[in-house]
Every structure is written in C-alpha cells, then in structure tokens.
Amino acid sequence: MGYGLTYPGTTTPPPTTTTTTGPGPVGCAADYSVTSTWQGGFQAAVTVTNRGSAPIAAWTVAWTWPSGQTVTNVWNGTYTQTGTAVTVRNATWNGTVAPGASVTFGLTGNGNAVIPTLTCS
C-alpha cells in the first residue's frame, strides 16, 4: 500500500514482498512490505496483527538490517536504531490492538530495500 509520496528519481515499485513472524506472546505477528523504492532509498509498511484471544496493550517490532541500512523516518510508531538493530514501538494512540485487529506503521530508509526477519512482542 502506498502513501501517495513521490520522490525525485522514483523507480517502479517492486512487487510487495512480505515476511511474517510466527505468533509471539499474546499472538503478536508482523508483516513487512516494501511499498516503493528509489535510488538509495525505500518506503515500507509494517502491519502488526493480534492473532491471540486477548487484547495487546502495547507492541514492539524489532529486526536487524545489513550494515549501512538506516531508518530515516517512521510514522504511527516511535523508533530507535543502534547500529543495524531497529526497534519500533507503538505510538500513544495505537498501542492497544484487539484480538483479530491490526495496526500499521510506515517507514522510509536509506539503502537497499532488504526484507528483514521481524520479531513482534
């Protein structure tokens, strides 16, 4: 899903590629999809889904990227990046996720559009 952003030198969006975590604590799962690429950068969307039977009160999605890859912006979440390790936590308004429901955050990054293996808790 695109967010209507256009960048100079935008290339044709790649096919959406997704990686999913298995249900973690309280059924948290995350799907990562690349929504756009351009020379030296990319945009992605991550959907956090509650596959459990109880509400999730707060969520965290984490992954490790290859060296040189960095997050430049995140919306609908807050992030930290230390070296290649990235952690995104819910924003104040989207931390509670009902059973069967989902929330999505987006990001832009520098580097190649690598699909990371996610953990969701």
UniProtKB/TrEMBL annotation:
InterPro entries per the UniProt record, alphabetical: CBD2, CBM2/CBM3_carb-bd_dom_sf, CBM2_carb-bd_dom_sf, CBM2_CS
Chain spans, region Disordered: 1-23
Highest taxon in the source lineage: Bacteria
Plastid keyword on record: no
Keyword Lipoprotein: no
Record keywords: Carbohydrate metabolism, Glycosidase, Hydrolase, Polysaccharide degradation
Domain CBM2: 21-121
Pfam families in the cross-refs: CBM_2
Designated name of the protein: Cellulose binding domain-containing protein
Highest classification ranks of the organism: Bacteria, Bacillati, Actinomycetota, Actinomycetes, Pseudonocardiales
